[in-house]
Design brief:
Number of helices: 14
Number of domains: 2
Strand order of the largest sheet: 15-16-17-14-13-19-20
Structural class: alpha/beta
Strand content: 15-25%
Distance between the termini: 53 Å
Radius of gyration: 23 Å
CATH superfamily of the largest domain: Aldehyde Dehydrogenase, Chain A, domain 1
Shape: globular
């Protein structure tokens, strides 16, 4: 499949916090893209190894929409150890040629990839809407962010002159140069929730620095991953430098990251899987392992907060993409003096959410990704009702479109602070609310979990803002963000770095230090020449 199509330009860019966009023009273009995508559904797709289609003799992945599980989007070949071995060995060979290109040529090719993403953004967004249940604006934000990530990372390489610099001389007859060189072949393992942006960000940083990539898209989003493969191919990335391997979980993923010729791993997903990769990757020597591992993100609401802004920001971050974001708000600590008023506003705004088929105009809340997510949500609802009280939700949505997909109600529970639901990452639309006595208790509760990705504060007191930034244990921090209390990071604006159990390197995507992690230092001294 190719996603080439005439360019469909928008006068304004759609981001996760867009405003003042010509939505009529946007929806007309989106409708046209949806029609084209639906016309392509049901096809059979191979792996792409060394530029050639490969169809293994094993049952394929049947890709269905979480909106309507009777709709087959396509069948995708499932790689196993043999295909992984072939792809990694091919990538190892092709990487040497790719790294030998002048860095400006690699950047030129990657910038062309960013252009193609923008030209195809409506088709890419339409695929994501159908495949993972993103609403139209979230899906378009994913596509726009993907292009911006590529350009931002290219800019970093350009600003550092390809990561080559002259160094001091100890003697007059020597010439010393410091350069950053690629590791070789990276395994890139992507999640379903930002199937284009996270795949593109991880892979483009590896590619532009001279590495080859063997790419495994999420099992729930192989079509979006294939569309990225087509972008790189059409931009001019040579065959074999980016290998596309759809596959099933550990069956294929373990064979990939554990292959002896893999030089590094870049992974976004669960903490359990990421830590298993981290501990198993480095056997003969330490290999780079770049991980973003989810979150259990807290918002603090104080008695000086704008409660309307707080309720709006929490609702948007808690229930955007059905809480299936690493950055989603999943717990709130609110001062007792304003708890009832805040809860009333939060419930009111959540009740007003339009739910249903997110491919339709103005539908904001859609399905969770699969039945496993439904079961996690059901377990949380049962526990929340037992330990505290449900303020809203708690039921599986029924009737019409809801009977065809994985739909559950956005749920808010007021819980005692000792509940385990404040600590467990659910990746489902369940928000835990706890009442605290003041700022000290709120910060202590926010920091006691093993994750540290995003955090939010709503306060009108300068001293609370200062303490929040200094003491909260999270890498991405927002204050008074009505458009999304803990979500909405963008390339070049908010580096996306996880602390504690949410990350591995201390330098996150979207930030100025990300690209350098895909290269290693080499000192070059020439004497007498």
């Amino acid at each position: 499949m190719t996603t080439s199509a005439p360019s469909q330009h928008q006068p304004q860019k759609i981001t996760y916090t867009s405003a003042n966009v010509d939505l009529d023009a946007f929806h007309r273009a989106f409708d046209a893209a949806l029609a084209e995508v639906r016309a392509r559904m049901g096809q059979s797709h191979p792996l792409h190894v060394d530029g050639e289609p490969v169809r293994p003799d094993r049952p394929p992945i049947v890709d269905v929409s979480p909106i309507d599980t009777s709709v087959v989007l396509g069948t995708f070949a499932a790689a196993g150890p043999d295909e992984v071995d072939r792809a990694v060995r091919s990538a190892k060979t092709q990487q040497r040629r790719w790294a030998a290109l002048p860095w400006r040529e690699r950047v030129r090719i990657l910038r062309r990839a960013a252009e193609l993403i923008r030209e195809r953004k409506f088709l890419l967004a339409a695929i994501m809407a159908i495949e993972v249940g993103k609403n139209r604006l979230e899906a378009m934000g994913d596509a726009e962010e993907s292009a911006d990530l590529v350009d931002y990372y290219c800019q970093q390489v350009e600003e550092h002159d390809g990561f080559v610099r002259d160094m001091a001389r100890l003697t007059p007859i020597e010439h010393n140069v410091e350069t950053l060189r690629p590791y070789g072949v990276f395994a890139c393992i992507a999640p379903f929730n930002f199937p284009l942006a996270l795949s593109t960000g991880m892979s483009s940083a590896a590619l532009m620095t001279g590495n080859a990539v063997v790419y495994k898209p999420a099992e729930d989003a192989p079509w979006t991953g294939l569309a990225l493969h087509d972008v790189y191919r059409d931009a001019g990335v040579p065959p074999g430098v980016f290998q596309y391997l759809s596959g099933r979980g550990r069956e294929m993923g373990d064979a990939l990251w554990h292959h002896p010729l893999i030089d590094g791993v870049v992974f976004t997903g669960s903490k359990d899987v990421g830590m298993r990769i981290f501990h198993g990757l480095s056997e003969r020597w330490v290999k780079p392992c770049l991980l973003e591992l989810g979150g259990k993100n807290a918002v603090i609401v104080t008695d000086s907060a704008d409660l309307d802004a707080a309720a709006e920001g929490v609702m948007r971050s808690a229930f955007g993409l059905q809480n299936q974001k690493c950055s989603a708000t999943s717990r709130v600590y609110v001062y007792g003096s304003v708890a009832a008023s805040f809860a009333e506003r939060l419930v009111e705004r959540t009740r007003a959410i339009r739910m249903g088929d997110v491919t339709q105009r103005d539908v904001w809340f859609g399905p969770v990704i699969n039945e496993r997510a439904v079961k996690r949500w059901e377990r949380a609802v049962e526990q929340g009702a037992r330990e505290g009280r449900l303020l809203l939700g708690g039921e599986r949505l029924r009737g019409g479109v809801f009977d065809r997909g994985h739909f559950v109600a956005p749920t808010i529970a007021e819980l005692p602070l000792g509940s385990g639901l404040f600590e467990e990452e659910l990746f489902a639309p369940f928000l835990s609310v706890g009442v605290v006595s003041g700022f000290d208790e709120a910060l202590a509760e926010a920091n006691k979990v093993e994750y540290g990705l995003t955090a939010g504060l709503f306060s009108g007191a300068r001293e609370e803002v200062d303490r929040f930034f200094e003491e909260v244990e999270a890498g991405v921090c927002y204050v008074n963000k009505r458009s999304g209390a803990t979500t909405g990071a963008w390339p070049g604006a908010q580096p996306f770095c996880g602390w504690k159990g949410s990350g591995a390197s201390g330098k996150g995507g979207c930030g100025p230090w990300y690209v350098q992690q895909f290269v290693r230092e080499q000192s070059r001294t020439v004497v007498g020449a």
